[in-house]
Amino acid sequence: AVYFLKEMMQENGEQLKGKKILISGSGNVAQFGLQKLLDYGAIILSLSDSNGTIIEPNGFTAEQLKQVIQLKNVKRGRISELTSMSSTAVYFEGKRPWEAYNDHVDVIFPCATQNEVSGEESLKLIKQGLKYVTEGANMPSTDAAIHAYHAHKVSYAPAKASNAGGVATSGLEMTQNSNRLQWTAEKVDTELQAIMHKIFVQCKNTAEKYGKKGNY
């Protein structure tokens, strides 16, 4: 999903560095997304779980990502516990990131669950500056939210395209197994980036063919 987002931004002459991003969820997709976005210099403002959202106004750091992994993958704790590890983080009980955060945002990366971004929330985010949506969960945006993205020219990457990286990586693992190969993590990542680039180009060209430029 991060690679698809990067492709969308490059198409518009932009880059991830310095962009303010809201992530929902705190599982594998959110964690790996956070890691990759930090690598590109983005500012990640939120994580969440089923109990609520934590906002880090200065952006999460690589050290905090390690704390998230320990908290969620080892301790099986709640995201609210991160407030004890940061003097600036604020927890919002029972709220999603789009409800909890009210300042400027460039990108949302919904990674939690289906239908987690409503039409009303999408319009709120658009007023806050939203320009890009890349989906990490399966169908996290409601129909009303998707209509709002298109109506306001928000670059929107639906899960079936942006979230194809997981299936693609499984395919790369099968390729290695069938050929008795063992690739490095760097090799797998390079192959994955190439696959996501091809998916983006196919989406882009199809949209333009049918007069829907930017509708991925």
Automatic annotation (TrEMBL):
Q: Which Pfam families match?
A: ELFV_dehydrog (PF00208)
Q: Which GO terms describe its molecular function?
A: glutamate dehydrogenase (NADP+) activity
Question: Which leading EC class covers this enzyme?
Answer: oxidoreductase
Give the EC number(s) listed in the UniProt record.
1.4.1.4
Note whether Oxidoreductase occurs among the keywords.
yes
By its UniProt entry, which PANTHER family does this protein fall under? NADP-SPECIFIC GLUTAMATE DEHYDROGENASE 1-RELATED (PTHR43571)
The name on file for this protein is: glutamate dehydrogenase (NADP(+))
Source species of the chain: Spironucleus barkhanus
Its taxonomic placement starts with:
Eukaryota, Metamonada, Diplomonadida, Hexamitidae, Hexamitinae
